[in-house]
Design goal:
By secondary structure, the chain is α+β, with helices and mostly antiparallel strands. It folds into three domains: about 90 residues, Pseudouridine synthase; about 130 residues, Pseudouridine synthase (2-Layer Sandwich), CATH 3.30.2350.10; about 60 residues, Archaeosine Trna-guanine Transglycosylase, Chain: A, domain 4. Helices cover about 25% and strands about 35% of the residues. The chain contains eight helices and 18 strands. The strands form four sheets. Strands 1, 2, 3, 4, 7, 10, 11, 12 and 13 form a nine-stranded mixed sheet that branches. A five-stranded mixed sheet has the order 14-16-17-18-15. A two-stranded antiparallel ribbon has the order 5-6. Helix 1 runs parallel beside helix 6. It is globular. The two termini are about 15 Å apart. About 35% of the residues are buried.
Length: about 290
Amino acid sequence: MDGVLNIDKPPRLTSHDVVERVRRILREKRVGHTGTLDPLATGVLVLCVGKATRIARYLEAGEKEYQATMRLGVITDTLDADGRVLETRSITPPDRQKIVDVMKSFTGPIMQRPPAYSAVKVSGVPSYKLAREGKAAPLAPRSVNIYSLELTGQDGPSVSFAVSCSKGVYVRTLSADLGEALGTGAHLTALMRTRSGRFCKEQSLTLDALAELAGSGRLEQALTSLDDALGEFPAVPISEAEAIGVTHGNQIACPASLANSNKDRVRLHDTAGRLLAIARVDAGVLKPEIVFS
């Protein structure tokens, strides 16, 4: 069984919990996710099944969209509502325009420090394990991109917003940083991922719906093919001779049609129209990165 699943993650489950449930439903060991969601979070969790686990890195790199709510005036150790309260401040909630102005300052390329309670590894050890032992050190800031950040609602100290961003953004950290910039402090209280790459919340499946499809022999309705999942990469048909070379890892000439393309990767299709490989566009040639037998 090979393909990609768009699962609507429920609250209180870890991403690993969801993977384990899907493995049991599908009776398939080869299942992995393409970007962790915290237990607090809900929404789009893209899972790769079977051979699709080989393309996880491409799907993980896609643009993400979230709807989030933060509470001003309260700071926690995990930067969200699941953490221990470190500080409660007496605040006057800022007006809407001030919040909008601060959000504008966080739009575009920014440096963001991952939270201590994260899966980022320090000398091979996940930072959250060190944090639980009181041994966590501040993690190095990383360059990320906030494409858009929009205030969607405010009710006293509760502030809701929508964010579109690159891979690697921690919305928990974004909330905490916004709180500090506003002079109030803040922590994340709700988070829903509404899009990950081409996969949207509206098309996601609950675990119960997936189990129902599996029970009635209709799993193909839930799976997106590898070819479709990688649809953002241009499709390039190649000859039988070129296909033989590609299966041996050999590069082939880049077609003239890609000369002015800004895409750095393509899908190579064999003469039967089947997905044969993912190749990188490099100085006029196509170099296979993943070859599917």
